[in-house]
Amino acid sequence: MKTAILGGVLFALGIVAALTGIISGPDLSALVGRVAPILGFVVGLTIVADLAAEAGLFSWLAGAAARFSWGRVWVLWLFVVVLATVCTVFLSLDTTAVLLTPVVVLVARRVGASPLPFAFTTVWLANCGSMLLPVSNLTNLLAQHTLGSPAPLTFAAIVGPAAVVGIVLPLVAVAVRYRRELAARFDAAPVEPAADRGLFVAAGVIVLLLVPALVSGVAVWIPAAAAAVLLVVAFAVRRPGALRLGLVPWGTLLFASGLFLVVEAAHSLGLARLLGTVVGTGDSFGALVRLAGGAALSANLVNNLPAYLALEPVGGSTLRLVAILIGVNIGCIVTPWASLATLLWHGRLTGLGVEVPWKRFMIAGLGLAVVALPLSVLALLYL
């Protein structure tokens, strides 16, 4: 609700900017043409993720991981690492934060393990692990356009070294911090069957087909929309009561649209020139760390999406654009509001009775970001 209200305010300000000429007609038309497919992808993928969870797909995967972990918490954790990484890379960071977090926390509780290493794994992988493919993060879809719309695998080759650092470092941090909790053992339980086997199979097949379609080079909104339609049809036949208007992420759409309009207006008023003096120029290691650090600071002050939009015009090269992504993706793990996924993650944990104080979260995130940003830039330059 708060996201929708803030989005409404931002959208209204953007409309005022368009009506008063701050955003010109051609600029507004170009902005709509750029962001409409992205927002369409967000809608399609959100519906797919919600209905797949409703069909029991994520719960079954987590239960199967517990069953085949040989009674060892660290093996279960590794299964969760793989699941969270794949989920983030192919189905976006919000899917991991919103749908996977409660599942893995409940599985951890069921086997008597501490939920904290699992909770931190999901939120850090959701953010830091969201660089590899355009579909992993909305900021990546924006950058893909600016980079000349490379194919997904070409995009992955460009950002790959930095993305690997973003995945590995959080895992090292969790493994070291929670080494005692991860060394525990438990008694494995049988995997609970899905309530509706037909819907479960349909969801599994559709998601399985969606993953390669998202990296096929076709505009990502097309397979996301097709998968959403197929799942909606399946639920309309077998469980129509699960279909509701709330499946469409209205608040997120309004928030993102408002951000796009307001940042476009700010660019028209000279925001890019101001930021250019702060983050500097050049493709050297020092220049890129300065840019990534500025992007991370901006993301943690406001949010990673407006931070990327604000800094994009001062990119100017492939290396600098990737440095901005490093800052707004890997570096947005300090403040709660730096990423919408983090706020959603914390809300899910609170609903489950898992307490993670923001002070503790911010200190841990700051320590991780300080190490991850320069190492990611090093990987970008030399690997």
From TrEMBL:
Pfam families membership: CitMHS
GO molecular-function terms, A-Z: arsenite transmembrane transporter activity
Protein location: Cell membrane
UniProt KW keywords: Arsenical resistance, Cell membrane, Membrane, Transmembrane, Transmembrane helix, Transport
Cellular component, GO annotation: plasma membrane
UniProt main location, coarse: membrane
Membrane-spanning parts: 34-61, 73-93, 155-176, 197-215, 221-238, 245-267, 287-309, 321-341, 361-382
Residue span(s) of domain Citrate transporter-like: 3-313
Entry's Gene Ontology BP terms: response to arsenic-containing substance
Membrane topology: Multi-pass membrane protein
Family under the similarity heading: Belongs to the ArsB family. Belongs to the CitM (TC 2.A.11) transporter family.
Protein name according to UniProt: Arsenite efflux membrane protein ArsB
Upper taxonomic lineage: Bacteria, Bacillati, Actinomycetota, Actinomycetes, Micrococcales
